[in-house]
Amino acid sequence: MTTRPPLATEKLSMLIGGRPAAAQSGDFFESFDPFTGKAWALVPRAGVADVDAAVQAAAAAFRGEWRTMTPSARGQIMTRFADLVAEEAENLAVLESRDNGKLINEMRMQCKYIPQWFRFFGGLADKIEGRVIPIDKPGVFNYTRREPLGVVAAITPWNSPLMLATWKLAPALAAGNTIVWKPSEFSSVSALFFGRLFEKAGFPKGVVNIVTGFGHEIGDRLVTHPDVAKVAFTGGDATGRRVYQAAAGGLKKVTLELGGKSANIVFADAKMEAAIPGLVSGIFAATGQTCIAGSRALVQRSVYDQVTEKLVAFARTAKIGDPLDPETQVGPITTLPQRAKVLDYISIANGEGAAQLLGGKIPEDTSIADGWFVEPTIFGNVKSSMRIAQEEVFGPVLSIIPFDDEDEAVAIANDTIYGLAAGMWTQNLGRAMRLPERLEAGMVWVNMYRATSPLSPFGGYKQSGIGRENGQTAIYEYLQEKSIWIDAGNSIPAPFVQR
Ligand code: NAD
After folding, report:
1. pLDDT in tens, 96-122
2. From atom 14 of ligand 1, which residue's Cα is the shortest distance away?
3. Res 6 pLDDT > 60
């Protein structure tokens, strides 16, 4: 077992108005290490008054020097921030792995990649251009400006804490907004360390504020606060619906990145040496706790037995263990209630008549008994109508569904309320060109899976979300366009007629 840093007794601070802040109540809550099952950090338990203070600080910062700073200067601060995050990447990765139990390899990859978002969007800050419109009225000059919205509330889930926050913070800041960020109560620790870097980079006080606490205690206040202009949310679809409804009261702008039930489709002509690890990486790499998990493997019937056998054999060898050990391939589930939910879905699938081919229970290995593990689990001969094929499990559970031809593959892939991602494995160029446009998903990967980048849009079709993160156009989610009219002809208005 790797050496684990001692239990942190340091009481961590939030970030409000550029200063470290405790909750006004003085309350803290424990954050748990999913591998040891023990509390390892103390996080401030914000209340409504803390949310109000953070929004007030963000609103003041929006009216302050941040507003008048040139976009190039904004971009330079973001680049400095990227450098600081790069220096801290290893520490941040360890904090994340301890706090949410995800593999150190995955958190390292994410934390090293995060600076690219701040560089990419920092670089866009001074490329936000308006338009000159050849207006159809003589003597009138009409142009547009793209302006920030104001205070953005960023609400993030437990599974990729800093990365998913970065997908909001980087475009929102580049566009000139200010932020109040509430990380998940299950993985707040890395956020509070990340927060220490903003002022060092030169962000004016209050531009970024971080409040930690429980969604049911402070989420609603943050979403409905009259000074919050936009809510950028990533999380489960039930919470997303609640956030959307609450934001509607104030007619706030909203982006939602929600759940998925993504299909990873293997055709008989696929290169199997790539497809099999591709299916495994789609579901087991993050213990299934990723919104883009390829939780439905659709396999062409003519190779169904062959693929299933290889897949089960490959997944059986996955090394379950300490997420801080770089050799580990499957870590624990982040929370105890989530583990209970995953085990519940396994018994539902068995009850529905799916064939359990692998896993299905808590591992028997006593050396990891304190951790919140579930074995990598595979169900075969799953029908698309079964709950295990329709509902997001968010755990290491794969359903294999057979299909006969392209049309049936598309029909099954699209037979869900979700539309986040899809993968397909084929050596047939025509099929690789033809199929992606028939799949109802925001991202389609061909002969690869689970790739993301600051350069390429990310988001859901159907009930997987509203709006897009990443890619150049994501910055428009944080801007509004103003149309400015100037009479350059010196004309006298006719008072009772529309011009
Ligand atoms: P969750 O919905 O339980 O929580 C997400 C965040 O919402 C947390 O910070 C939580 O405190 C907050 N919250 C809870 N109640 C709230 C309320 N009433 N008002 C405002 N905020 C509230 O999600 P989770 O369980 O932490 O994360 C897992 C889910 O996130 C999965 O469904 C997964 O698919 C989804 N996810 C989506 C993406 C994506 O980009 N599409 C990425 C990662 C995770």
Report:
1. 999 999 999 999 999 999 999 999 999
2. 215
3. no
The finding on whether 243 has its CB within 6 A of some atom of ligand 1 is: yes
DSSP sequence for 134-177 = --SSTTEEEEEEEEE-SEEEEE--SSSHHHHHHHHHHHHHHTT-
Distance 230 CA to ligand 1 centre (A): 17
Task: Tell me the pLDDT band of 303, cut-offs 50, 70 and 90.
Answer: very high
Helix (H) or strand (E) holding 297: strand 296-300
Q: What angle in degrees, to the nearest 10, is found between the helix axes of 71-100 and 161-174?
A: 170
What are residue 31's DSSP bridge partners? 41
Coil, helix or strand for 252? coil
One-letter amino acid identity for 423? G
Q: Is the CB of 166 under 6 A from ligand 1?
A: no
Q: Is 216 in the pocket of ligand 1 (CB under 6 A)?
A: yes
**What's the rounded mean pLDDT across residues 251-278?**
98
Rounded CA gap, 499 and 487, in Å? 11
Q: Contact at 8 Å (CB) between 299 and 266? A: yes
Contact predicate 387/352, CB 8 Å = yes
105: left (phi over 0), alpha (psi -120 to 50) or beta: alpha
Of the chain, the end-to-end C-alpha distance in Å amounts to: 76
Structural domains in the chain?
14-258+464-483 (3.40.605.10), 263-446 (3.40.309.10)
Residue 1 pLDDT > 60, yes or no?
no
Q: Could you say which of 106, 185, 257, 392 is catalytic?
A: 257
Q: Would the CB of 167 count as within 6 Å of ligand 1?
A: no
Residues 6 or more apart whose CB falls under 8 angstroms from that of 109 comprise: none
Residue 422 and residue 141: Cα distance in Å, rounded? 47
- Mean pLDDT for 12-26 is 97
- The position carrying tokens 């979700």 is 418
Q: Are 467 and 254 in contact (CB under 8 A)?
A: yes
Beta-carbon neighbour count of residue 186 at 10 Å? 19
CA 453 from centroid of its chain's CA atoms: 12
For the question of residue 291 being annotated catalytic, the response is: yes
Chain segment 206-254, per-residue pLDDT in tens: 999 999 999 999 999 999 999 999 999 999 999 999 999 999 999 999 9
